[in-house]
Amino acid sequence: MIITEITRNIKNEVVSKRCDLLIIEWYESTKRIQRLRTEEGMDIAFKLLGNTSQLHNGDILYEDADKIVVIAIRSCDVICIESLNFLEIAFISCEIGNKHLPLFIEGNELLIPFERTMQSWLNKQGIPYTLASRQLLSQLNANVDANYHRELKFSTKSIPLFIKA
After folding, report:
1. Taking a C-beta distance cutoff of 8 angstroms, is the pair 111, 99 a contact?
2. Which terminus of the chain has a lower count of CB atoms within 10 Å, N or C?
3. In terms of residue numbers, what domain contains 52?
4. Is residue 41 within a helix (H) or strand (E), and if so which, with residue range?
5. Are residue 84 and residue 136 in the same domain, yes or no?
6. Distance separating alpha carbons of residues 101 and 96, to the nearest angstrom
7. DSSP state, 159?
8. How far apart are CA 143 and CA 103, in angstroms?
9. Is residue 29 located within the same domain as residue 87?
10. Are 13 and 63 in contact (CB under 8 A)?
């Protein structure tokens, strides 16, 4: 079966059918093309295009009279950083961005998939954190949609430029 778009999520519905779970890792949720197998052995291929570029926990992939196939994101080891003051959050976020690590937010916590180098850096900086096992669901994304640049039309021709020597 080839899935090209996701239209529904189980969190918005009451379901009385049998659920066949497709358990994925957090990093698999952003892959547009992949082939996976559900717990009951059903092969599912993804070719997600356009606005359907990411899988979410609870997405309904398939439904028939007896069952539905639902995405479940597996928990993993994470570093949890409680919200500190604004400057500390900016400092931590900048360092995470410099290391090209994904950053997730849940409530008032920043979550980072566990990496020993990040744990070491947090220890050196004296930043308090805890280790836990969590689902990584809400990734912060700094990427801008391609349409944004097409719609952004302005010119600097009408702006006077003053240079003092």
Report:
1. no
2. C
3. 2-73
4. none
5. yes
6. 6
7. S
8. 13
9. no
10. no
For residue 106, the domain's CATH number is 3.30.70.790
Q: Which amino acid is at 76?
A: C
pLDDT digits 0-9 by tens, 52-70: 678 899 999 988 889 999 9
Burial class (CB in 10 A: 0-12, 13-18, 19+), 42: middle
Per residue in 137-153, pLDDT (tens digit) is 988 876 555 555 555 55
58 and 9 Cβ atoms separated by less than 8 Å: yes
Exposed / middle / buried, residue 38 (Cβ in 10 Å: 0-12, 13-18, 19+): buried
- Tokens 């009451």 belong to 14
CATH of the domain at 17: 2.60.260.20
Which of 49, 23, 48 minimizes the C-alpha distance to 36?
Answer: 23
Name the DSSP letter for residue 143: P
Tokens coding 31: 């892959």
